[in-house]
Amino acid sequence: MNVLISIQQPVRAWQIPFEGVETLRARFPALTFHHATDDAARATALVECDVAYTWMLSAAELETAPRLKWVHTSAVAVETLALLELFARDVVVSNSRGVQSTPIAEHVFAVLLALAKQIPYVVDQQRARRWAQNDFFGSRLPWLLKGRTLGLIGVGTIGSEIARLATAFGMNVVALRRRVDGSRVPGVGSLLPVSELDTLLRQSDVLVIAAPLTPQTLNMIGAPQMAHMKPGAVLINVGRAKIVDHVALADALHAGHLGGASLDVFHQEPLPADDPLWAAPNTILTPHTSGFRQGHWEEVIELFADNLSRFMRGDPVRFRVEPTLGY
């Protein structure tokens, strides 16, 4: 069996380390691993690979891989894969869902606490060597998470962990879900169907987006939806950038309707220097790093190794992407 490993990215943290490839070779000595680190090596290996461990695959590339039976992505997002063409050929697709749930959920509460406790303002005053104690009155006073309502869009592995942590802080969690079938999600007090998005927005003091990008979530939160949010509400997006209209968000922040925001995903990365979000008040922008952490690749490689063992035995792989859902 031939396994293509092709995880080269401009982002250093998402490039598979050489040691990880050697770990797989040692664990599966009967398999042939092709570690492609350039386009030419990738194209050559695709021709004879049975399995592709990669984060992207185009329809044109798929046509050159007649033996391909399974694609596993090192990422959670799958929009960089030619899903329609893969599914049409009955190629199994799986992702690294679950690996990112803890670091991203912790990131959400790091930025939420920073906004609630006025940390960006405090840091600005520290840099100016200014003792700003008497600035803290009125809207500048820190606020409590306890008793606030967190509205959650997306209750997969990441969203579920966010809900769990929110409950620990004493927050009330209302979540939007594509399917409301009576099942419960720990930490979520109320599950609403997508048709009740406006209800969720009106109730939320904090809106957290942790959903995948699908035709249903594309441009889900625009200017009309932000207008329905509470004055002073906070928006946090760790899902996909195109779920939120960034121009409308910048306008809502500059106008003072929203009390703050934190984004870890952007329509264009790197974010252009002239983007109005850079200067938006009470806003924390992180360069798509919410999933970064020590030990990331050890866990990601272990997941792939477990799935590879399952695939070799003919068992179902974990975190299979469903054709009807697209995630």
Secondary structure class reads alpha/beta
Morphology: elongated
Estimate what percentage of residues fall within beta strands.
5-15%
Strand neighbour order, sheet with most strands: 8-7-6-9-10-11-12
Please give the domain count.
2
What's the CATH first level of the largest domain?
Answer: Alpha Beta
Q: Termini, distance in Å? A: 27 Å
Mean pLDDT: 96
**Helical content (DSSP H or I, runs of 4+):** 25-40%
Computed CA radius of gyration, to the nearest angstrom: 22 Å
- What would CATH call the homologous superfamily of the largest domain? NAD(P)-binding Rossmann-like Domain
CATH topology group of the largest domain: Rossmann fold
What does this structure look like?
With 327 residues, the protein is α/β, with parallel strands linked by helices. The protein folds into 2 domains: 2-97 and 293-313, NAD(P)-binding Rossmann-like Domain (Rossmann fold); 101-285, NAD(P)-binding Rossmann-like Domain (Rossmann fold), CATH 3.40.50.720. Helices cover 33% and strands 15% of the residues. It has a 7-stranded parallel sheet with strand order 8-7-6-9-10-11-12, sandwiched between helices. A 5-stranded parallel sheet has the order 2-1-3-4-5, sandwiched between helices. Helix 5 (101-116) crosses helix 7 (157-168). It is elongated, with a radius of gyration of 22 Å. The relative contact order is 0.12.
